[in-house]
Amino acid sequence: TFQEFQEDVSRCFRNAITFNPADHPVHMAAVKLLKAFTTLVDEFKAKQVQTAKKSFSKATAKPNSSVAALLEKRHQEEFLDALKPTAGNLLVVPSTLLNHWEEQLKLHVDWKYITNKVSLIYHYDGNRQTEVSDLCQIQKTHFPCVFIDKAPNRPLPTADFLAMFRIVLTTTQRLTNEWKNGSFEDELQQDKGSKKYSAYYYEVGGDDSRSACPLLKVNWFRLIVDEGHSMGRGPSNSAILFASWISAQRRWAMTGTPTPQTASSSGLSNLKGLMRFLQHDFFSLRLEGDTIWQGSIVRSWNSGNLAAFFRLHSLLSLLMVRHTKLDIDELPPPNFRTTMLTMSADEVASYNALASAIMSNLQITSMEGLTSGRQDSLLFPAQSRNAREAFTNVRLVCSGRCGLYPTISDDNQRDLIEMVKGLGLTGVRLKLIENFLYRVVNEELSGCNMCGLQIPILLLIPCGHFICVDCFDNKMCSCAICHQVFDVDVFQRLQPGIELQWHSPGEIHMMKAQGSIARNVNEEAVQVPDSPRAINVADRVALQPAPARRRTRRPGDGHSCEYDVASSEGKCILCLEEHFDCVLLGKSRCDVCYKAAQECPDYESKSFYLSKTLHELRLKYP
To answer: How far apart are CA 304 and CA 322, in angstroms?
Structure first.
């Protein structure tokens, strides 16, 4: 064959070069002849390819023929010549993991092993490209290590600039944004005036913002996609299509879930998509990869043929590297320890509020009346979304820190009062209902009239009594306290529309402070069950939360702090420093900073401290 002829002639010239000194005439003649022979062989192959193109008909040719393979190889070589070669790696990660990858690179990569220059990690924001090029290419004092794409909506630098770096870190959002500009290969084919791809590349140079993305104009050493299972969802995704246009010598897909935990057909489809992303020759059109996949794996798998499992296992063993915790020798075995944490008063109140709301919904909607309320039950299929949200809230409230507090809108309060008056409840009963609404709005607890349990949400009986969900039974048709018979439909409509709202720790602290001020300052001297002590109305001052201010003086610079009488924070309006030397004994507000006094909890009082100390001494010295 011609290939064997080429190898024999080249071997003769190489032997003459190897076994003769460099200054020998035979050695020098062999060098010239080998170079000339190589040039002639390349020209001969190029002419043969051109002749094959003219005689090749796409309508009659087979995609897996030798002529088609030769043309495809030639086309690929021309395209690679148009790309910028680099030893860099392109790393594509989700936008939320960009900072995490940056931290891991700084933590685990030691650039001293590859350079003695200053390592450069460039945060690309659309600026300072000239400064980076000057440091790395002209002054040569820095080594371009990592390029981090912090501006996915701005145009990228040129391919020459990106090829400098050993690691280019970008996001899937960049791939999605650049997809609309098309592939670099299509861009080259549309240029009819250029016969060679390389000529087109040097004319354009990647400077035209309307051209293909510079990431496509570099022949990367390695393409790595974090959360790579997203590459198997199908070619219709813009990010997946863009990734298929990227040229790389090696392609990696890093994932902890190669296939979705759904039907086996979806898992096989996802694996096939990953194979296409890896651009394995087995799945090329020329080798009829789709037909082989369907016949050898999919159909056999669906029919329950065991051979499909071994075929798939054999294929994946060539392409997949799996790491488990058992593969890491230095990783010690985990130690599991269960610790019971005591919930704070706010956490207990939040949990009780959520549990009462869920149990109230299940109890009320399961009662038998003229009009059924089953469609509002969390167990009803149409309420599945609200049921999932309720389970999520249970997990969140058990994790602590945040608070879940009930509230009632003004419209619901007015409707409830009108309905109560329509039932003939007046005087003390009406006042107790108003007090209950007051406690709910101000995030205070109310007591069950039957067991005395203090919880945020109670059920209102038409007779005017309040009971908790633990004391209530969905079979009840009379009050458990006064035994007055009530109508189930009236009972269901009577329950106030209580909503639950999440609050952060900072919001909880602020609401407590504002609630204390509102109780101690703004409320009339009216005795409300379980409410704080009343104060003189003459001492009242209309307070409001302090508006957002900017610091105009620094703490400790010698200025005299000034405080706003209408503020409830007790902070200086100049330096925003909080006043801590308050004297609140027998007063409702500090005379200096106007901070409101708050009720001291029992566990912080002097009597509690003395009782606790005496008890400890008695146990210690019986």
So the answer is: 26
Segment 467-503, tens digit of pLDDT = 888 888 888 888 888 888 888 888 888 887 788 777 6
| C-alpha 475, offset from chain centre | 46
Q: Could you tell me which residues are beta bridge partners of residue 149?
A: 124
Per-residue pLDDT tens over the stretch 526-544: 333 333 333 232 233 333 3
- pLDDT of amino acid 271: 82
**DSSP letters along 95-113, please?**
GGGHHHHHHHHHHH--GGG
For the cut 90, the answer to whether the pLDDT of residue 91 exceeds it is yes
Helix (H, G, I), strand (E, B) or coil at 120: strand
Q: How far apart are CA 572 and CA 561, in angstroms?
A: 5
Q: How many residues does the chain have?
A: 622
**197-204 vs 66-81: helix crossing angle, rounded to 10:** 20
Strands in 72-217 per DSSP E: 84-85, 89-93, 118-124, 142-149, 167-171
Provide the H-helix boundaries in 216-342.
238-245, 264-278, 289-293, 299-302, 306-319
- In the 8-state DSSP scheme, what is residue 262? S
Write the DSSP assignment of 363-432 as a string of letters.
HHHTS--SS--GGGSTTSGGGHHHHHHHHHHHHHHHT-SSEEEEEE-HHHHHHHHHHHHHTT--THHHHH
Residue pointed to by tokens 């009662």: 367
For residue 224, pLDDT over 70 is answered with yes
CA distance 463 to 219: 81
Q: 285 pLDDT exceeds 60?
A: no
Q: How far is CA 159 from CA 135, 143, 164, 194, 531, in A?
A: 18, 17, 9, 20, 71
Residue 88 CA from chain centroid, whole number: 28
**Cα separation, 568 vs 510, whole angstroms:** 10
- Residue 74 confidence (pLDDT) above 90: no
Distance in angstroms (rounded) separating the CA atoms of residues 300 and 412: 63
Instruction: State CA 67 to chain mean position distance.
Output: 49
**Cα distance between residue 457 and residue 405, in whole Å:** 10
Q: Is 447 helix (H, G, I), strand (E, B) or coil?
A: strand
Q: Rounded distance, CA 366 to CA 371, Å?
A: 11
Residue position matching structure tokens 């029919």: 303
| CA–CA gap between residue 393 and residue 404 (Å, rounded) | 9
Q: Give the per-residue pLDDT at 517.
A: 39
Backbone angles phi, psi at 501, to 5 degrees: -125, 140
Structure tokens at 129: 């490209």
Averaged pLDDT of the chain: 76
Residue pair 478/490 in contact (Cβ under 8 Å)? The answer is no
* Cα-Cα-Cα-Cα dihedral sign, residues 327, 331, 336, 340: negative
Whose CA is closest to 87, among 162, 163, 156?
Answer: 163
